[in-house]
């Protein structure tokens, strides 16, 4: 089919097959009344993100891949997705980049890639205790011994360190 | 003081947003003193600007509290504008400092999607990291999809979910309270229990069977149960069944009757309530190792290399299926099929209407001591120390449950809870979770001799052992 032109936040233009609408609800909607050679402006997607999104789309041949396992069962994303390429793809990004990508895919209504990123973020929470999480995310809200006691008595299973079986 | 400057700038741009807003912030002290209603006004404005300021709900409440205080205090009222700016800036500082993650910038509906990927354990932990996530974790959608994943039914309420989950986790993470029942003078070889009924039957090498009544109300009383001793109050021996001339090896509860198979080569049918023997069925020429029944038929397996099908009403033999020099060790009836565990290491599925063998499951390398089936799934426990899960449609082993150090003697399985329990000659009982089959979820130690029989329901497990005792392991979380 024909090609469409996407314009990133910085104004860079990228050509892509119109099959991209399979993956993105946003593009799909736009293509409903699209005139040839019209630029599609994506005001909140940076060029870097757009490149990554296209890389993902091309790898999956513009078809929606199998979603990650839900809920995830291992802190390693590779165990939760069917395609090892997907795991490699998100593993090379750091957290901030992933969140940027989530924002971009959210804008593009691109569920498949967003799910992958969200599963990766969820993996970061897996098997971590409260102290680690609070430190990592710099949460300063008060966490008193009382609350901890209550947590321990109400949910003893949650506080036990689980072996990575 | 970077955050503060940011705040000033932000405040400025916000102020420019609308005249209304600017006017309100520039109120003179005099005006404020004149009208306390202005505070209400300020509050209303603050609420409408909440999203512009990116204020979180607890920060909002701090400011609103401050406004409330100002209402009550005249001196504060005098400096309202300045104080208001101060408190706003304080709130802003606290919201800027922890920003070493961009996660907080994601819209909440996206955060919900992340929470969807977590299991109850992580959800609980993460909900205790900050108030905002805590309130998000109350969302019903998360629990609905989780309970669908865990139990195939949908529970929307978080508290209800937690109750059920706590009960389930009790099986895997807590030490149960134990009641020990003494009464038999020989090994307890078999148990019969229908979940939901207040009694169970035990059969023993001392040639007798007993009916025990469980008083659930007492079992729920933590104080009594915690005492961990020989129970007299919670469980009572109701009926004894004497008459067999050899060790009783198997029993099952039928239509208001008890059916037992013994080493004296007979099957006896007992009146459940009175303990009287109503029928003695003869026919087998070897020890009867296993028995199962439903409303129409009784199936018995014997060491004489055969299993027989009997009519429940007339007690006549309907079918005999003979093996070639191969003892039947265990069986389970699931009309119209029967699953047979054999001495020759194989697990066979028979169709009773046609008397044809449907499939043989080969994989164990020693005799099969226990079988259990549900739909197309079967479990077997063998003397080779393994328990295996089979797919009966293809006759292949799906999952291995390794862990016991000696013969697996008994098995029980519940489809709803994904739970499998195995008892072994190594004196332990192991609890498995079919969602996480790579390790044992809990090991129960307490019997001083091999465990021969095990049954469980929602919150308790009953086991019978060679040490002549029956133990009730109570996991009730109440």
TrEMBL record, chain A:
Keywords: Ubl conjugation pathway. GO terms for biological process: protein ubiquitination; ubiquitin-dependent protein catabolic process. The keyword Cytoplasm does not apply. Pfam families: Skp1 (PF01466), Skp1_POZ (PF03931). The keyword rRNA processing does not apply. Residues 111-158 form the SKP1 component dimerisation domain. Pathway: Protein modification; protein ubiquitination. Residues 4-61 form the SKP1 component POZ domain. Belongs to the SKP1 family. PANTHER family: SKP1 (PTHR11165). This is SKP1 component dimerisation domain-containing protein. It comes from Stentor coeruleus.
TrEMBL record, chain B:
It comes from the Eukaryota. This is F-box domain-containing protein. Keywords: Repeat, WD repeat. InterPro entries: F-box-like_dom_sf, F-box_dom, WD40/YVTN_repeat-like_dom_sf, WD40_PAC1, WD40_repeat_CS, WD40_repeat_dom_sf, WD40_rpt. SMART domains: FBOX, WD40. It comes from Stentor coeruleus. SUPFAM superfamilies: F-box domain, WD40 repeat-like. WD repeats lie at residues 181-222, 241-280, 281-320, 401-442, 444-478. Residues 100-146 form the F-box domain. Pfam families: F-box-like, WD40.
